[in-house]
Design a protein that fits this description.
The protein is an alpha+beta fold and 260 residues long. The chain has helices spanning 13-16, 29-33, 43-46, 111-121, 155-160, 232-236, 246-250, and strands at 2-7, 21-26, 41-42, 52-57, 63-67, 70-74, 80-82, 88-95, 101-105, 109-110, 128-143, 164-179, 190-197, 203-211, 213-228. Strand 4 and strand 5 (63-67) form a beta hairpin. The longest helix has 11 residues, at 111-121. It starts with a strand and ends in a 10-residue tail after the last helix.
Length: 260
């Protein structure tokens, strides 16, 4: 394992709204896109770095949501259960969430409008955020990956055949991270969102949604720590080419346009 650390410094807006949290990440988005799915850090260890976040399990065996200190594995059928602490995450982004900033959403928003609304609330696009949205969702569309077997396919091939799920009239929590565009290749530029229901029984990676009303809270994060994989596969991987598949894997690749 190799660990990198970056911290922003400065004055003005950044210092006046200084965040005290640390965003801890396991592996890189570029590695996942290239098909590097071996687990790196157990959920037991990951809990030392955060109680809130999202990620993918070893061999892409479902997606992960961490909320209120509990790590959940969300299976391909959308069912959520507490994750085995001994299982490793292939990719994860976590922090200790405080919810220092808060706002209320009182009007219906689809996913694109929700993200645009968040852009107005957040003070800068050049820092990291952990975002929590608790609310009522008339529609929530998600996915979760099936466990992969070696030799692993690239991620764009995997998501082409993954099932999508739709939940209607569900209350729950969106667990999200917003990253600045300059970390492209390391993490998703912009919003990466997972969902888990209020009763903690279902969820997944958010592809689309409609929010009726809800409460938003977020933390401003100015310190980022990255733990790189130590495998031979990572050391030999070609991670210098452009991540042309990024926008395709963020959403349902079979969906041509978002809900209006």
């Amino acid at each position: 394992m190799r660990e990198m650390k970056a911290q922003t410094t400065g004055s003005g807006l950044a210092s006046s709204r200084a965040g005290s949290g640390i965003l801890f990440q396991v592996s890189t988005l570029g590695a996942v896109l290239e098909g590097l799915y071996d687990g790196e850090v157990t959920f037991a260890e990951l809990g030392k770095y955060g109680d809130f976040g999202l990620g993918s399990n070893d061999a892409l065996d479902g997606v992960m949501v961490a909320l209120d200190g509990v790590f959940y594995r969300i299976a391909p059928d959308g069912n959520a259960l507490p994750a085995d602490p001994a299982v490793k995450a292939a990719f994860a982004t976590v922090t200790f969430f405080k919810g220092d900033e808060k706002a209320v959403i009182r009007r219906p928003l689809n996913l694109a409008h929700l993200q645009a609304h968040l852009d107005v609330l957040l003070p800068s696009k050049n820092i990291f955020y952990a975002i929590r949205i608790d609310g009522s969702f008339p529609r929530m569309k998600t996915r979760s990956e099936r466990k992969q077997a070696k030799p692993y396919k690239k991620f764009i091939e995997v998501v082409q055949t993954q099932p999508t799920l739709e939940f209607t009239d569900v209350r729950g929590t969106v667990v999200g991270v917003r990253c600045p565009s300059y970390v492209r290749g390391i993490n998703y530029p912009g919003y990466h969102l997972h969902f888990i229901s209020e009763d903690r029984t279902c969820g997944g990676h958010v592809l689309d949604c409609r929010l009726n009303e809800g409460a938003v809270s977020w933390d401003i994060i100015r310190e980022f720590r990255l733990r790189l994989p130590g495998s031979d596969q990572f050391l030999r991987a070609d991670l210098e080419k452009p991540d042309q598949d990024l926008e395709k894997v963020r959403r349902d690749p079979r969906q041509r346009r978002p809900e209006s």
